[in-house]
Amino acid sequence: MKIAMIGAGYVGLVSGTCLSELGNNVVCVDIDEEKINKLKKGIVPFYEPGLKDLMERNAKEKRLSFTTSIKEALQESNVVFIAVGTPTGKNHSADIEAVKSVAANIGKFMNGYKLIVIKSTVPVGTTEKLKKIIASKQSKKIDFDIASNPEFLREGEAVNDFLIPDRIVIGVENEKAKKAMEGIYKGIARTNKPIMVTDIKSSELIKYASNAMLAARISFMNEISALCEKTGADIKEVAKGMGLDSRIGSRFLQAGIGYGGSCFPKDVKALAETMKENDCKARMLEAIEAVNQDQKKSLVPKLQKLLPELNGKTIGVWGLAFKPKTDDLREAPSIVIIEELQKLGAKIKAFDPEAMENARKILKNVVYCKDAFETVKGSDALLIVTEWNEFRDIDLKEVKKLLKQPIIVDGRNIYEPTEMKALGFTYVAIGR
Ligand code: NAD
């Protein structure tokens, strides 16, 4: 297949590269000229393990290229994926302006039959609207089909998630579009991963409902962790015992400082808005979000119990990205926590293995350190905000020597409280 991938961000670039790896010819399009220039030189504009090698190989074999011209890319392709951003817009609903603008351009520049695939996460009913926009912008009637193909990859695991997914969801209106989509993914079908073909609206909603369910599990465990702290139960034991129930399963049961990133926060809010627009109640969705907002702020009062006067104190922070193995700071708990500490007069030293460049653009008056040890040197306490592996196995005796006071507040439960006590730390975690 000849594919144009419009939007070369975390999803578009990974999807475009992986689709070229599956044997398709892919041209990635973005309006960001700087990004496209970097990509042409083989520079990946964000951190994603495994992506650079795959990108280089497929570019060398001429299956993958980059451009800022949607017109050229569209006219050379028979399938067009839309993978531009759908951030939070007015009243927390999804802002679909970028998707609409791409659809208008597709209608305008179309030179023959195309299959147009919506990969961006869009509210149920959007694909139908996009179909109308495309038709309305055509200067003469040209036949096209439309499909929904939401993406479920996780940043940090994106390449593997794309090439070995739990499932591929495809929403189509007819057999022709179904056949074409199955052709694009035939490399994955060979691995026996299920390809679910359904109607377009169900496909759009599967994406939002999946993210909301995962977010619900996180908020649920965070709510239970508060009761653990009051009563002396241990959330890790509770999660283990729950996870052994095959109806529940063990994944996504970790308590922590809440979810962040470019998907869960905006998708839970957008789904709640879609519910209300359709006269449905969104009680569970609103609760998921409210618990998460509180949880993001929960590290600061824990620290204040140990250091009541934060004014003038130096606090070390390990981890800035919203989760490990990414440099993405969108909706990261680190932003809420650091800004709150700064309001209380604390000085911040911070380290993240990959996200410091992005953090510098958002978090000001922070001393960015070269490694985890420099961060704790002379600090009055350490906060653990992102659970990078290198923090799990660090020399804790050295950390204790470098800290001014041996206080650790761990937002990700990466250590065992009894071991930390034995090492002489004052150690506070979540729900333990
Ligand atoms: P992103 O912000 O990383 O990338 C979006 C890209 O689209 C940017 O490079 C931007 O310059 C480009 N763009 C914007 N308008 C454009 C236009 N008119 N023409 C061409 N390019 C344009 O966003 P993302 O994280 O890749 O997310 C894209 C979509 O995928 C969203 O709907 C998101 O919800 C969904 N999604 C994201 C993830 C994730 O982990 N990031 C996972 C699954 C689904």
Structure overview:
- By secondary structure, the protein is α/β, with parallel strands linked by helices.
- The chain has 3 domains: 2-198, Rossmann fold; 208-295, N-(1-d-carboxylethyl)-l-norvaline Dehydrogenase, domain 2; 297-428, NAD(P)-binding Rossmann-like Domain (Rossmann fold, 3-Layer(aba) Sandwich).
- 46% of the residues lie in helices and 14% in strands.
- The protein contains 20 helices and 14 strands.
- The strands form 3 sheets. It has a 6-stranded parallel β-sheet with strand order 3-2-1-4-5-6, sandwiched between helices.
- β10, α16 and β11 form a beta-alpha-beta unit.
- The radius of gyration is 23 Å and the shape is globular.
- The model has no long low-confidence stretch (mean pLDDT 97).
- Bound molecules: nicotinamide-adenine-dinucleotide.
- Residues 6-12, 29-32, 35, 83-86, 98, 101-102, 120-121, 151, 153, 155, 262-263 line the site of nicotinamide-adenine-dinucleotide.
